[in-house]
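Whiteboard transcription, Tuesday session. T.W. wrote the structure tokens on the left side:
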């Protein structure tokens, strides 16, 4: 009797757990976040490697000026981005990014860090503004 009870309990558990797994569709917010974070990384890599074509392709005219206007020459640049928060409005996406940089110029290292807001617009997204602490500006001493 005990064996029959355990066997029927086992069959019941397997039947309850053996159904098809439900796959949830990816939300539009998740897709937008992925696109915005990828764009920020693309712009970061293009700036570090001094690829002006990629910067212009992935930004509006105003956004391109914000990234290249105060660019000074540097021997080496280490720049890291950490996306922190995404705000989605009707025609605009604001990606808050925490960043750290180490600029090397003529053997002198200068470190900086801050929080920036990348304002992105359009389809596909393009950087249109950088608010707060711009990571693409050489830190002043």
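and on the right, the sequence the group agreed on:
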């Amino acid at each position: 009797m005990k064996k029959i009870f355990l066997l029927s309990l086992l069959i019941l558990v397997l039947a309850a757990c053996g159904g098809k797994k439900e796959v949830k569709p990816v939300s539009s917010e998740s897709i937008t976040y992925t696109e915005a974070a990828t764009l920020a990384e693309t712009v970061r890599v293009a700036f570090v490697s001094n690829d002006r074509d990629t910067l212009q392709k992935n930004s509006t005219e105003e956004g391109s000026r914000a990234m290249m206007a105060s660019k000074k020459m540097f021997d080496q640049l280490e720049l890291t981005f950490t996306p922190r928060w995404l705000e989605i409005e009707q025609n605009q996406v604001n990606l808050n990014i925490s960043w750290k940089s180490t600029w090397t110029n003529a053997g002198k290292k200068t470190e900086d860090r801050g929080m920036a807001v990348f304002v992105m617009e359009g389809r596909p997204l393009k950087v249109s503004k950088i608010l707060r602490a711009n990571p693409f500006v050489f830190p002043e001493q």
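Someone added at the bottom: The two ends are 84 Å apart (CA to CA).
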